[in-house]
Amino acid sequence: MLPPLARKAITDDPKKLANLIDLVNLPSTLREFVGQSQISRLGFFNSVWFYIKTNNLQDPNNKNMVNCDEKLKMILLGKPRIELAELPMLIKLHFPKEPK
């Protein structure tokens, strides 16, 4: 479920929703991570979040921090730790806008 402000932003501009849910051909590093050749940006974000939760990568003392393992470092620019707030921006870098 989306927060009210995000829901309003998406319904006001349908292109924002399209950017989140359109399928994109993935580069090889992302393909290896998710095991698919195409995925939406939102789907990829969900895959990364699921990976973080199932592998207990959140810092137990500060849940806003993620301790990256080698597999996660490959897709998050080699950073050993990230803040959860950085995650959408780092994922967005892998999904550049296509020229119109």
What can you tell me about this protein's structure?
By secondary structure, the chain is mainly alpha-helical. Helix content is 50%, strand content 10%. The chain is built from six helices and four strands; from the N terminus they run H-H-E-H-E-H-E-H-E-H. It has helices at 4-12, 14-21, 28-34, 41-54, 70-75, 87-92; strands spanning 24-25, 38-39, 65-67, 81-83. The chain has a two-stranded antiparallel sheet. Helix 1 packs across helix 2. The model has no long low-confidence stretch (mean pLDDT 80).
In short:
The chain contains six helices and four strands. It has helices spanning 4-12, 14-21, 28-34, 41-54, 70-75, 87-92, and strands at 24-25, 38-39, 65-67, 81-83. The mean pLDDT is 80.
Based on CA inertia axes, which overall geometry fits? globular
- SSE string, helices as H and strands as E: HHEHEHEHEH
Strand content: 5-15%
Largest sheet properties: 2 strands, antiparallel
Total DSSP E strands: 4
Strand order of the largest sheet: 1-2
Residue stretches low in confidence (pLDDT < 50, at least 5 long) are none
Question: What integer is the average pLDDT?
Answer: 80
The end-to-end distance, rounded to whole angstroms, is: 30 Å
Relative helix content: 40-55%
- Total helices: the number is 6
Radius of gyration: 14 Å
Structural class call reads: mainly alpha
Assembly of the depicted chains: single chain
